[in-house]
TrEMBL record, chain A:
Cited InterPro entries: ABC_transp_permease, LivM-like
Sorted UniProt keywords: Cell membrane, Membrane, Transmembrane, Transmembrane helix
Its membrane topology: Multi-pass membrane protein
Protein's UniProt name: Branched-chain amino acid transport system permease protein
Subcellular location, record wording: Cell membrane
CDD domains: TM_PBP1_LivM_like (cd06581)
TrEMBL record, chain B:
Keyword Nucleotide-binding: yes
A GO biological-process term: L-amino acid transport
Every ABC transporter domain range: 1-231
The entry's keywords: Amino-acid transport, ATP-binding, Nucleotide-binding, Transport
Keyword Electron transport part of the UniProt annotation: no
Annotated InterPro entries: AAA+_ATPase, ABC_transporter-like_ATP-bd, ABC_transporter-like_CS, BCAA_Transport_ATP-bd_LivF, P-loop_NTPase
Name of the protein: Branched-chain amino acid transport system ATP-binding protein
Domain of life: Bacteria
A Pfam family this chain is assigned to: ABC_tran
Any one GO molecular-function label of the UniProt entry: ATP binding
Family named by the database record: Belongs to the ABC transporter superfamily.
Automatic annotation (TrEMBL), chain C:
Matching CDD domains: TM_PBP1_LivH_like
Protein's name according to its UniProt entry: Branched-chain amino acid transport system permease protein
Organism encoding this protein: Desulforhopalus singaporensis
Places the protein is found: Cell membrane
Recorded family membership: Belongs to the binding-protein-dependent transport system permease family. LivHM subfamily.
Statement: the UniProt record of this protein carries the keyword Transport: yes
Length: 345, 231, 342
């Protein structure tokens, strides 16, 4: 799952590396696959927590795809998730098509709005771009509340499930598949020349332009991809919970994804996945055990976010990178010592 | 200043640099590009915390002291980047330079003094610093640095990007200042001129002091001749 | 007025800023004729306070490069403080009427709100941003943005946890008859609140332009190292800036308590509004924040009047999105933009 082993291009890990996985990442995925089968995780509420984790993990990956590489925080991200969710739910309700198909319709609609946002926000930089996406999000949520003939507003929109029966297990494997799909597609994208262009634009737009990278194209592509997966995840969300409210589009939901993405580590993609499961799990545990203290889990969320930003801005991904980079550091410090010795002569 | 080591983050720029300046001296610090001259001044001024070593000023160790406090104690730093307040007028910039002075009369006096040094500034008191020409900006930065009645002035490459006669003007102004009893540490790449004006000099290469001595001796030194004077 | 200045005025009127201001005034007049002057009263009362909020956000951004998404929470702190000062006093006054006390109760509440907000701002700076300044200046803009989101989450939920998820408000400040402007009756509260906003704005302007503190703040905003080189203690200036910005937000919160009762997420709408204003007029444009505040207030009052509750965020948002497309740096955009673009 990690990109740590980019350098080894031979053998098994080399093949894995080509599809953006490492042996460690594969082991992690295997654990995620088996986890809901072993006690105590095989209880239904635990599986539900795992599903929450996987939803946020997938969303964090797609979020980091724009925020981490292009440097544009899509602050209306939840609205794109919500747009996909509502589109899928409405289509499957009105026409009666299977949710498996309609979630792609939802994803496409989200991607469509992503194209528009990407094109329209092209001239905007930094905070202006962030605020622009944010305003789109607020406006969408307002629309969602007001167009109650379509969305039933705050009453909530019922949607069909993917599967018959009460078990959450099939849902878990479905969202896991969506998460892995998201990660692989976006990871391969980052590995390609596109990734380089994204980074170049994110670091310095003018310089990227003068060296021949065309920001229009790449920004739009990036936004579209990110929003497509947002819509897909949203579609799953609706059909999994069975009811949609405009709350899903709220900035607070964006913040949840954003916190996980940044705790995971910016521009890593996989960091969000590593952070999401333990974090969401701990949050749910906290919420259920401290139910007389509402919001305490969110306070901890905030404290975590601030602490990470002040003391460890690279997040979990940085931690892993440091582990492997330690070797390099020690060689370079030897070089410094050599220079000292030389200077002493 | 003793055995100073300094740098940026993991990068080490200065390697055990020792410089000693007495009151009233005009000392020059010269060396090629990237030698660490600016880093030395930044570290002394307090903008950059040293990695190790000891900086003493007036008998006090000022190692981790903030730049603002050093300024209060009479140490004035005129940086390469000038760090002017571009959205303020020339006069406002000068007033900011004197903002530590309690005495209003003293400020007027200093203003007269810097206008004498740089008459061009007086003509442009109302102009925004961001719209001045390169030379005028440099003059303004130096003038601002002098507004606080400093004991020691650290000047970083005042000749950079200036026309020769303007450089001359600036150097003369520094000389006048030195005559008034202000200690000066001047960083320059223009070796010939600097050695002519200063009384003593240090030569810094790759973050180390390679030579030091009275300027008149250094100007005849073989190493200096070979590398800096091209003869 | 001589020729050159009238030419300047005409040129300004033709610019995007001039056109928008003119349109706003025309719309305001038209709406007041159609729906009655109370629309205008509400616009003025809330607009002044939104301007105050936006000035705070603008100040933090201009001086410290912090885009504060927790600014609404200082509004919330203000309204909470004002409530806990005014409510007990009003209860007490019910039993023991006292003219003087009932006169100064709202003043105490509003002043207390501003003071507590300013203190909260200083605490925020010292505990969080001073640490970040010391440790890491890389990616400052984005890190700070995320930190303020963290602050927002914490403050909202601490309010919920400690004070509960209820509406805490007062009905009015002073039990005195309304003031008549022609045949329009406006409650004293509204008049006073509008006055407070205007006074605070003028005071702020004076502070920034003519006092040594203001000059220091401007110096730090223009060149931090330059400020240190002339002996300004930048940490102190940063804390003061935070105190000012958050104090203004809390002042707005305390002053508007009679319209916006305090509850955990009461700050969200003011936050939206101050960011609309900033985007509309451009970052770091303190002078533009005042007309911007009234414009946004008018937008919202008008959409609420004509389209009903709930639309007031949708329509202005689309309008601002449109404005952004054509004027990417805001309608009063100036040439100074390098800092804001990172
Ligand atoms: N802000 C900085 N961050 C990292 N390295 C720097 C910085 N400023 C200067 N350096 C490095 O430190 C070295 C010395 O620079 P400097 O002191 O400016 O040299 P000089 O003034 O003698 O030309 C150079 O190699 C330069 O690249
Ligand atoms: Mg230099």
């Amino acid at each position: 799952m990690t990109q740590l082993t980019q350098d080894n291009s031979t053998g098994f890990s080399g093949i894995l590396g080509k599809i953006c996985l490492s042996p460690m990442g594969l082991a992690g995925l295997a654990i995620l696959f088996l986890l809901p089968l072993v006690p105590p995780f095989n209880q239904d509420y635990m599986i539900r927590w795992l599903i929450s984790g996987a939803i946020v993990a997938a969303a964090a990956v797609a979020f980091d795809f724009s925020a981490g590489y292009l440097g544009i925080v899509n602050f209306g991200y939840a609205a794109f998730i919500g747009l996909g969710a509502y589109t899928s739910a409405i289509i499957s309700n009105k026409i009666g098509i299977s949710p498996f198909i309609t979630i792609f319709a939802g994803a496409l609609v989200s991607a469509g709005l992503g194209v528009l946002t990407g094109i329209v926000s092209l001239r905007l930089r930094g905070m202006f771009a962030i605020c622009f996406t944010w305003f789109i999000g607020i406006a969408l949520m307002g629309l969602c509340l007001k167009l109650d003939w379509l969305t039933r507003g705050p009453l909530g929109l019922q949607c069909d499930g993917f599967f018959e029966g009460n078990s959450s297990l099939p849902y878990y494997y479905l969202i896991l598949a969506i998460m892995i799909f998201t990660y692989l597609v976006l990871g391969l994208m980052i590995r390609s020349d596109y990734g380089l262009a994204f980074r170049a634009i994110g670091q310095n737009m003018e310089a990227a332009m003068t060296s021949g990278v065309h920001p229009t194209k790449y920004r739009v592509i990036n936004f579209t991809m990110s929003c497509f997966f947002a819509g897909l995840i949203g579609g799953f969300y609706g059909h999994y919970y069975g009811i949609l409210t405009p709350e899903l589009l709220h900035t607070q939901k964006t913040v949840e994804v954003l916190v996980i993405a940044y705790i995971g580590g910016r521009s890593s993609l996989w960091g969000g996945i590593v952070a999401a499961f333990p974090f969401i799990f701990a949050m749910e545990l906290l919420r259920s055990s401290l139910s007389d203290l509402p919001g305490i889990n969110l306070i901890i969320y905030g404290v975590f976010l601030i602490a990470i930003m002040v003391y460890y801005p690279g997040g979990v991904a940085q931690f892993f990178k440091n582990l492997t980079a330690r070797k390099q550091r020690s060689t370079s410090s030897t070089a410094q010592k050599a220079k000292t010795a030389e200077a002493g002569v | 200043m003793k055995n100073l080591n300094a740098g940026y983050g993991f990068l080490k720029v200065l390697w055990d640099v020792s410089i000693q300046i007495d009151r009233g001296e005009f000392v020059a610090l010269v060396g090629p590009n990237g030698a660490g001259k600016s880093t030395t001044l930044k570290t002394i001024s307090g903008l950059l915390p040293p990695q190790s070593g000891k900086i003493t000023f007036d008998g006090q160790v000022i190692n981790n002291q903030d730049c603002a406090l050093n300024c209060r104690n009479g140490l004035s730093y005129i940086s390469e980047e000038l760090n002017l307040f571009t959205g303020m007028t020339v006069l406002e910039n000068l007033e900011m330079g004197a903002q530590l002075l309690d005495d209003k009369n003293k400020m007027e006096e200093n203003l007269q003094f810097v206008f004498e040094l740089f008459p061009r500034l007086e003509e442009r008191v109302g102009q925004y610093a961001g719209t001045l020409s390169g030379g005028e900006r440099k003059m303004l930065a130096i003038a601002r640095g002098l507004m606080s009645n400093p004991i020691l002035v650290l000047v970083d490459e005042p000749s950079l990007g200036l026309a020769p006669q303007v450089t001359e003007e600036v150097f003369n102004a520094l000389k006048v200042l030195n005559k008034k009893g202000v200690t000066i540490l001047l960083v320059e790449q223009n070796v010939t001129k600097t050695l002519k004006f200063s009384s003593r000099a240090y030569i810094l290469e790759k973050g180390e002091v390679v030579l030091e001595g009275p300027s008149s001796e250094l100007i005849t030194n073989d190493h200096v001749k070979q590398i800096y004077l091209g003869t | 007025m001589n020729d050159s200045s009238s030419a300047k005025v005409i040129e300004w009127l033709k610019s995007a800023g001039g056109i928008t201001v003119t349109c706003t005034i025309l719309v305001a007049i038209a709406v007041s004729f159609h729906k009655g002057p109370y629309v205008l009263v509400n616009t003025l009362v809330t607009g002044g306070m939104w301007a105050l909020m936006a000035i705070g956000v603008s100040l933090l951004f201009g001086v410290m490069n912090i885009s504060n998404f927790a600014h609404g929470e200082y509004f919330m702190i203000g309204s909470l403080t004002a409530y806990y000062i005014m409510n007990p006093l009003k209860q007490y006054l019910l039993e023991t009427p006292n003219d003087f006390l009932s006169f100064i109760t709202p003043i105490l509440g509003i002043a207390g709100a501003a003071i507590v907000g300013a203190i909260a701002g200083i605490v925020t700076d010292k505990t969080i941003f001073a640490q970040l300044r010391k440790r890491n200046r890389e990616g400052w803009l984005l890190n700070c943005f995320l930190i303020t989101i963290g602050i927002q989450i914490i403050l909202i939920n601490v309010h919920m946890l400690v004070f509960g998820n209820t509406f805490k408000g007062v009905v009015n400040y002073w039990d005195v008859p309304s003031v008549a402007f022609g045949d329009v009756y406006v409650s004293v509260d509204r008049v006073v609140v509008f006055g407070i906003a205007m006074a605070a704005i003028v005071l702020f302007w004076y502070l920034m332009m003519y006092t040594s503190l203001g000059k220091k703040i401007r110096a730090v905003a223009q060149d931090e190292n330059g400020a240190r080189m002339v002996g300004i203690q930048v940490n102190g200036v940063y804390s003061t800036t935070f105190a000012l910005a958050c104090g203004f937000a809390a002042l707005a919160g305390g002053s508007l308590l009679f319209m916006f009762p305090s509850y955990p997420t009461v700050g969200v709408a003011p936050l939206y509004n101050s960011w609309f204003i900033i985007i509309l007029v451009g970052f770091g444009n303190v002078a533009g924040a005042v007309p911007g505040g009234f414009m946004i207030a008018l937008f919202q009052v008008v959409t609420r009047t004509y389209m009903g509750e709930g639309w007031e965020n949708v329509i202005p948002m689309f309008l601002i999105a449109m404005i952004l497309i054509f004027k990417p740096y805001g309608i009063f955009a100036t040439k100074v933009r390098s800092v804001w673009e990172q």
